[in-house]
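Sample entry (353 residues):
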Amino acid sequence: MGRKHNYMKRLPKIIALFLAGVALAAGAAVHAQTLGSQPDPIQFVIAPELPGPGEQVVIQVQGVGTFLGNATITWQKNGATALSGVGERVFSFTAGGLGVSTRVHVVVNSPTNGTFVRDFVFIPSAINLLWEADTSVPPRYAGKALYSAGSQVSVTAFPTVVANGTTISSNNLSFQWQQNGEPVPQSSGKGRDTFTFVGSQLRSAEAVGVDVYLSEVKVGHAEIVIPSEDPQLVLYARDPLRGVLYGQAVPSGIALGSKELTLQAVPYFFSTDSVASGAATYAWTLNGTPTSGPDSARGLLTLRQTGSGVGSAILGVTLQNNDPSKFVQSASTALRIVFGEQTGNTLSSFFGL
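Predicted structure, serialized as tokens:
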């Protein structure tokens, strides 16, 4: 139990750093000039369509038939010719920094199909997504409250969009949210940079994406996957004077060196509203037989040794969320207690067995 609990305290930090990296996305305002009213025999494929600062961009010309192979294609970047020749259908470049525009001018001159001109403007921006789960953790917990299936979670977009040298406020941007690939219009709109929802208890993860617009121009996109973690239940000793000793979890086996021991079962990553309302209920057992105490419904149980015998017992506790929409939230743990004559007869011996 001790090693498992220490791993739990490190894991949220690792996940938080990973998710913060995954959440970084970027965009560009892309404008195309189309000549003529007839359908174009050529198309431009851009990858990525919304590049980030310093990101490699590839533009490819595609067309019906073979005429592009005989066409002279000229690519200009910021007014200077960067590539020109027969059949030069692919052009790549590195996007500029935040708010630094890159203009690409393309001329396709075909002996049989005439001349086609296109202009593109790329202005990189950055969208950072951060999520926060409304799940239970103990006081002064150093890690991140992880998401568990059925819990509430909030995702906030932090955009850096620069136009004409000015950073645009979130209040002037429109956020169009998606959840698991489906649009969420009721949570989208101008200035709505936070999306709060209750996850499905049937999914192992929740995928959230957002498109960011300045007026009618799409200037950024970001997406993030929030994994669902299993809730945990951890036992801590409770001292009459100092309260719950959150600094170290009780190991899986202890020697009852004194006549009395009070334990607190602490839930990790259960929905906080279920814990607060009492929808999540505790059940204690001693050697498989249900047991209880005055505060056992609050996850608190006091053990007292009676008599002078020597032996051991298995104490178990389960926490079950009885909210129908969160019924998958359940956790249990067990503790082997050795009592009677032992070599160590102090409370500190509990943590070394």
